[in-house]
Structures are given as C-alpha cells and as structure tokens.
From TrEMBL:
InterPro entries: DNA/RNA_pol_sf, DNA_pol_Y-fam_lit_finger_sf, DNA_pol_Y-fam_little_finger, IMS_HHH_1, Rev_trsase/Diguanyl_cyclase, UmuC. SUPFAM superfamilies: DNA/RNA polymerases (SSF56672), Lesion bypass DNA polymerase (Y-family), little finger domain (SSF100879). It comes from Henosepilachna vigintioctopunctata. Residues 14-224 form the UmuC domain. Residues 432-441 have a biased composition (Low complexity). Pfam families: IMS (PF00817), IMS_C (PF11799), IMS_HHH_1 (PF21999). Belongs to the DNA polymerase type-Y family. One of its GO terms (biological process) is DNA repair. The keyword Isomerase does not apply. Residues 425-456 are annotated as: Disordered. This is UmuC domain-containing protein. It comes from the Eukaryota. Keywords: DNA synthesis.
Length: 551
C-alpha cells in the first residue's frame, strides 16, 4: 500500500516531470548540430514532434509533413520510427527518479509522476521553514491560503523537483518541465503551463481556478475521447457543465465509481495513487503495410520486424517466454478490417547468449513458430490481404533467473518441435501493446503495471529441497515420499519417481529424459552416501543434479 494514500486532503506532494521535445532532444544528443536549427521528428508522413526552434515557425506535434514544410521549408527532418533510443533513454530517466522515491510512475515515454510526500517530510526536518523560497512559476493567487500546512509542503516540493530536473540534465543532458501539486491530476495539468525547461506549482486553493481554465472536458487528463463523447449525450462539454451535471445522470452513463471519479476531476480532486512502474510487460513492434497477399511477403516482413525486435529485447536485457503475432486482415468484399492476435511459448534458450543479435538459426526457429501462428490466423489457401503485422515478446524473466527456470532444462528446439502441442491462446487484441511501436498511431502508451518482484520459483524450492536432502544426516531421516508419477507418458517400467522432498509438480513438468536423469542421479548419490557414509560426497561434475547443488 502506498504510504501516502489519502482521501480528499492536501497531504501529498506529487511531482510530474515531462521531458521537453523528447524525441528531438534524443536526436540532438546523438547529433548536437541539430540543436540550433529547426528540426522535426518524422514518422511516416507526420512530424510527431520538433525542437523548440521549429516550434517558433508554428510547427506543432503530430502535424502533417506537407503542412510543416510549408510553415518551415528549411525544417530538417530526422526519421523517428525506431523508438529504441527513445525507449532506452526514457528508462534511464525513470531510473534516476527512482533514486529519490520508489513511487515513480511512468506515463508514456517521457513523463513520470513521483510521490514526493516522504521526501518533503524528510527535508522539512532539516530546513528552516521561514527561509524556504519556492522555485518556479506559480499558478493562482497566494491570498488566503489554506492553513493545513500544505503551502510549505508545496514549496519544499518545488525544491525537490528542481533538484530532480537538475540531475536529469547533468546525468543525461535532457531538459524537462515539472508540475508540483498535491495530486496527480493537478501536477500533470500544471506541468505544461510554462515550457520549456521550467517548472510550475499550484496550491490546493487554486485547484478550481485551474480546472475552470481548461477549454473542455477532453483536456482533462483521464478523460479520453470515448468518455467525452458519452458526456456529450447529457450535454456536458465544459468543466463547468461537468461540475453541474447531476450525478444520477452520470450514473446512468457510467458505473458509479467512474461517475464519481469524473465529478471529482471536474473539481481538481484526484485521489489516485502514484503506482510503481517497472520495465514494460511487453516489448513489441508493429508496422502497417500496403496489402500483402502472399505468404512469402509475410515471412519477409516478419523477418524484418523480428530482427528489429530482437535488438530491443537485447537492450532490455530480460528474456521473454512468449511471442505474440498480430495480424490485421482486410476483407475486400465487406471493406472491413479485422485485427487478431495469437501467441505461443518460446524457448528461453534462444536468448541465453547475450550479444547484439540473436543467432541466425534461432531467428529461423522463431520464424517457424511465427509462420505457424500466422497459418492459424489466416487461411492461406484462400486469398488474403494483410494490412498490418505486429510482433511482441511478453512474460519476461530476468536473465539471472533463467538458470532457475524450467526452460533451462529443456533441450534446445524442444518447443519448436512441439509447437502444435503448445497451448496457443487466441483472443481479440483490442488494446495496444504496452510498449508497441506504431509510428502511424503516434505514441507509446504507459507501462501499466509495476515490475514483478522476483518470486521464489517452484524450481528454487525444488533445488532447495534437493540440497536439504544432500545435507541430511542419513537417507533414513528423510521424509521419504517416493511418489509414483501419474502421467501416462512415463514409462512405468523404468519406475521413475520424483526424488523425495522435491516438488512433484515441478518434476512432472520436466521432459522425461530429464526426469530419468534426475531420478537415477538421485538413486546413485543415495547409494554412494549409504555405501561410503559420506553425505558430503561430491556429485559427478557433469550431472544434472549437480546443476542445482552447485548453486
Ligand atoms: P510529448 O511530451 O507530448 O511531446 P514532446 O516531449 O515532444 O514535447 P513537449 O516539450 O511539449 O513535452 O510527447 C513525448 C514524445 O512522444 C514526443 O517527443 C514524440 C512522441 N509523440 C508521438 O509519437 N505522438 C504524439 O502524438 C505525441 C504528442 C508525442
Ligand atoms: Mg514531453
């Protein structure tokens, strides 16, 4: 539970940091000559962002290329369709902020919320309150301020935000803006009031004034296009109208919680917590394309996407366990598009060697999986038309966990060979990937969840149990539960059993050969230790059982 959970009060301090012209800044870091000339980042026929020099000519975000070139004919364009550098710098920024607080929530690639409540409290212990001077621009009046102590907290928040921005600049060379307020909503809105390279703060008393300064409900963070369309049904377009509409009317359109949430937003009240963000849950790429109608072309496109994706995964450092294929087909008869996704497990062994690129033979094996998935999604003996292909890796494990994972037992290729027997999940993919690259659809969405903390895997328990056995006084002291394997695939003649104290469910997941080896290894060590009375006797150096025990 976030320690600074609060109700409707002004006890928290939330800082929102948004990097200035993010993609452009990254490109300038790579090529400083771009700094003082108008420069835009191009994705397909859109200028997704530009440096502030270009903005002086009226270039705006997501402007059509033609329009931008008319406004600024000497605009220098940099292709920004490969997001890997943006993504990696984005994570560096988040990591820097995580040095201050564990409560850092990423939003898109260049925004972070930080719950600075604790930091403020700490700073207040060592500072003379009388001497605190806020840093940055203020929104609203300073007359008749609330006396609950929030004023001083916001002031200290501005000092911390300035420190954070300074660190980002010193360490990464990036300028940013910050908003400081007592909740996420206000901190985000206020952040963009003065740009670039500035910060703005607001006292709780000015929340209402800030909300009423917004042009429509659509400009409230948290109110999407769909919600604002629904609100129009009850003639709610402005913030004032949202404040005045009866909650009973909203309850008819939304579930009561959402209705209350919307009402609260209109008054600048937002009790949502800063969630802890980790690495993305999935890493993906997708490319819309001109009609593809031949399997060979699909394979070529997937090869290209896979090579690019492998570079991203390599940079991320974790190992994926699942690959997902997204296909958008176009029906020429009905003139409609359909987006479908299918996924499959993949062998973690493909990724165990580190290096910039996956080995070619592994790439081909993954392609084989992908083409299998493709044939399950598209009936290839009938004419088909593909307008988008996407790939993503999900279910990541940390590289250091790989040796403890079941996958590390499985011999190379086993999953490729058994592709038809692997359970493939098929579902409609209506939501975008958490880190999908989609130049045509503009920006990345936020990482929705925090990184899972490393869990004690079943295999670790298995390993520990084996070690416990190895250090037992004598086999007779063991809680021996020689479990007969139930699975039909096991050859009963061999009488393979799960070694005592090992986790049966894990053992049963292992391939038969591995089970055999473990069981015989176990029997051999038992005989050895009984015969020699030496429980510390070393296992054969190349044995599978030794694989665990050594660690
Ligand atoms: P923003 O923070 O909205 O824009 P910005 O950082 O370029 O500029 P500002 O100084 O106003 O903050 O978005 C961050 C990056 O996301 C931006 O550099 C490019 C990308 N982006 C898209 O790809 N599509 C979009 O529609 C927008 C708005 C941004
Ligand atoms: Mg930005």
């Amino acid at each position: 539970m976030n320690p600074t959970a609060c109700n409707d009060e002004h006890q928290r301090i939330i800082i929102h940091i948004d990097l200035d012209c993010f993609y452009a800044q990254v490109e300038i870091l790579k090529n400083p000559e771009l700094k003082n000339i108008p420069m835009g980042i191009q994705q397909k026929n859109i200028v997704v962002t530009s440096n502030y020099k270009a903005r002086e000519f009226g270039i705006r975000k997501c402007m059509l290329l033609n329009e931008a070139m008319q406004l600024c004919p000497h605009l220098v364009l940099v292709n920004g369709e490969d997001l890997s550098d943006y993504r990696s710098i984005s994570y560096k920024v988040t990591s820097l902020l995580q040095k201050y607080s564990e409560y850092v929530e990423r939003l898109g690639l260049d925004e972070n919320f930080i719950d600075a409540t604790k930091l403020v409290e700490e700073k207040l212990k060592n500072i003379n309150k009388e001497q605190i001077q806020s840093i940055g621009n203020i929104f609203g009046s300073t007359e008749n301020l609330c006396q609950c102590g929030c004023e001083i907290k916001v002031k200290v928040g501005t000092l911390i935000a300035a420190e954070m921005r300074k660190l980002i600049y010193e360490q990464l060379g990036l300028t940013s803006c910050a908003g400081i307020a007592h909740n996420k909503l206000l901190s985000k809105i206020i952040c963009s009031k003065h740009k670039p390279n500035q910060q703005t703060f607001i006292y709780p008393d000015s929340a209402l004034e800030l909300m009423l300064s917004l042009s429509s409900v659509e400009s409230v963070p948290g109110v999407g296009r769909v919600t604002s369309e629904i609100l129009k049904q009850v003639n709610v377009k402005s913030i004032e109208e949202l404040q005045n509409v009866e909650i009973s009317k909203l309850n008819k359109l939304f579930d009561p919680e959402k209705a209350k949430f919307l009402k609260n937003l209109s008054y600048g009240v937002d009790n949502t917590l800063v969630k802890r963000s980790g690495k993305p849950l999935s890493i993906g790429l997708e490319d819309s394309c001109k009609l593809i109608s031949a399997e060979k072309e699909v394979k070529e496109k997937l090869t290209e996407l896979l090579k690019r994706l492998m570079l991203l995964v390599d940079k991320d450092g974790r190992i994926p366990k699942t690959i997902k294929l997204t296909v958008r087909t176009f029906d020429k008869m009905t003139k409609t598009s359909r987006r479908q996704t299918k996924q499959s497990n993949i062998n973690s062994q493909f990724f165990t060697s580190s290096g910039p690129l996956i080995k070619l033979h592994n790439l081909e094996k993954i392609l084989l999986i992908l083409m299998n998935l493709f044939r399950k999604l598209v009936t290839i003996h009938r004419p088909f038309h593909i307008t988008l292909l996407g790939l993503s890796f999900t279910k990541f494990i940390e590289r250091m966990d790989i040796r403890h994972s079941i996958a590390s037992f499985i011999k190379n290729d086993i999953e490729v060979q058994s592709i038809t027997s692997i359970e493939n999940l098929n579902y409609d993919d209506s939501s975008p990937e958490s880190a999908a690259q989609s130049p045509s659809s503009c920006r990345e969405s936020s990482d929705p969840e925090s990184e899972p903390t490393p869990k004690r895997t079943k295999l670790n328990i298995f390993k520990r149990n084996l070690m416990e056995y190895d250090t037992c006084d004598s086999p007779s002291k063991l809680r021996v539960q020689d479990l007969q394997l139930s699975s039909e695939k096991h050859d009963n003649n061999l009488n393979i059993k799960c070694p005592p104290n090992a986790d049966k469910s894990v053992f049963e997941e292992l391939p038969l050969e591995v089970q055999q080896e473990l069981w015989f290894e176990f029997k051999r060590t038992r005989m050895d230790s009984t015969a020699f009375g030496n429980r510390q006797k070393k296992l054969k150096s190349n044995s599978l059982l030794n694989y665990f025990v050594k660690q």
